[in-house]
Each structure stands twice: as structure tokens, then as C-alpha cells.
Amino acid sequence: AVLTFGKTGWGKSTSINYLNGSNLIVTARGGLAPPDAERAVTPIGNGDGSTTLYPEYCDTCFGKVYDLPGDEETRGIVPEIINCVSKKGMGKVLKKLKILLVMPASTFTH
């Protein structure tokens, strides 16, 4: 299984949809989204904070993926605790594990 990691709003859900072959368009707010949200393999946020509260299982063309809630959760401490407990539990249960770390390009440039 693949687990996605990254801060809230960094594009974990968007990356999963893109890698699964979804066409993405630029939204009015400058983000990316599939033209038909119903066809998204996992929901994509709109920039107003976290969309993913619990790990979302996605059956994609490249295997089983868990879209994890973002780090530095925008909805307070309770979702942050749920996020930590979920990640710890998944690490114990899954036999084979791959990690997709999503970061903005600006992280690598000066």
C-alpha cells in the first residue's frame, strides 16, 4: 500500500488523482481539480483547510493508496490526534508500505 504524507493543503489528494490519470483543470482560486468532482478517486480540497479527516482508501491504477489527513491540521487538536493515531495504526497493520511525500516545489528552492 502507498501512504501519502504532507502538510494540509500541499496536494496529497490532488497528486493521487493526477497519478491515477484524472484530468485536472485550474480552478478560479488557482488550485487544481478534476472537471467532474464525482469522478475523483479521492476528494480534493478547495484551499479552505483540510478536506481529509480520516485515511481515505483509494483503489487506483497504481495500487492501493491511503490518502492521509494533512499534518498541521487546520481544524484543531482533535483531528490532529486522530491523524497521529491513524498513521501509527496503519504502520502496524500494513505488510508492505510505500510512502508518497508531497511537498511544494518552493521547499526545494531558495
SSE layout and pairings?
Elements: E1 2-5, H1 12-19, E2 25-26, E3 32-33, E4 56-60, E5 63-67, H2 77-93, E6 98-101
Parallel strand pairs: 1-5, 1-6
Antiparallel strand pairs: 2-3, 4-5
Which sequence of SSEs, written as H and E, runs from N to C?
EHEEEEHE
Amino-to-carboxy terminus distance: 33 Å
Radius of gyration: 14 Å
Estimate percent helicity: 10-25%
DSSP strand count: 6
Dominant shape: globular
**Poorly predicted regions:** none
**Percent of residues in beta strands?**
15-25%
Task: Specify the biggest β-sheet.
Answer: 4 strands, mixed
Number of helices: 2
**Secondary-structure class:** alpha/beta
Side by side, the strands of the main sheet go 4-5-1-6
Mean pLDDT over the residues: 82
Report on this model:
It is a single chain. This protein is of the alpha/beta class and 110 residues long. A four-stranded mixed sheet has the order 4-5-1-6, with helices on one face.
Task: State the gist of this model.
With 110 residues, the chain is α/β, with parallel strands linked by helices. The protein contains two helices and six strands; from the N terminus they run E-H-E-E-E-E-H-E.
Descriptive keywords:
single chain; 110 residues; alpha/beta; four-stranded mixed β-sheet; 6 strands; globular
